[in-house]
Design goal:
Radius of gyration: 18 Å
Helix content: 40-55%
Largest sheet: 3 strands, antiparallel
Shape: globular
Number of domains: 2
Number of helices: 6
Strand order of the largest sheet: 1-2-5
Strand content: 5-15%
């Protein structure tokens, strides 16, 4: 029996390619309704971020009609999704203080990198500073503002964090991002 290789597909009535893959049965319960952010290559530009919600399968647009680019993005998404699945199989992990600070450093590096060519107007940085300060004023706001970003960074490293480590990593990422806008 020959198994078909995973490849981009398209919806009926559309020429835009999409990613579609089944979530393995052993982690469907853990993965259900989780949101995953994929970094897709966009040659000559910054990576394209695409979010998808996990269910019994994962489906999202590759945002291109070009077959070569669709294959490249599909391959990148497959690797990221398999890393996410492996992190779920490994279960939540406790992080030391050093590892939490390192995750905050990753947040700092990614944020700085995204603005190094075009930093924007001072008014935008003032708004960002105010938003970060407001988010750091309570744990609920920090969770809502920095939580998804920390989850994305952890998953990119193949980690699912236990609740205590996640709170600490959110705090460190918040501090790091506030330092940028100070």
């Amino acid at each position: 029996m020959v198994l078909a290789m995973a490849r981009p597909t398209s919806r009926p009535g559309s020429t835009v390619q999409q990613f579609r893959k089944r979530v393995p049965a052993d982690i469907q319960r853990l993965a259900k309704r989780q949101s995953v952010v994929f970094k897709l290559p966009d040659p000559g530009k910054d990576d394209l971020l695409v979010s998808a919600t996990l269910g019994s399968e994962v489906t999202f647009s590759l945002r291109t009609r070009e077959p070569a680019l669709a294959k490249l993005r599909h391959a990148a998404a497959s690797v990221q999704l398999e890393q996410h699945f492996q992190a779920l199989r490994n279960g939540p992990r406790w992080l030391s203080h050093k590892e939490r600070v390192a995750l905050g450093g990753l947040a700092y590096d990614e944020f700085v990198k995204s603005f190094e060519d075009f930093p924007g107007e001072p008014e935008i940085w003032e708004l960002a500073r105010e938003a970060h300060e407001s988010a750091l004023s309570s744990s609920e706001r920090s969770e809502a503002w920095f939580g998804p970003y920390v989850d994305q960074l952890a998953l990119a490293k193949g980690l699912v964090l236990d609740p205590e480590s996640r709170r600490g990593a959110i705090q460190e990422a918040g501090r790091a991002l506030s330092d940028i806008t100070a």
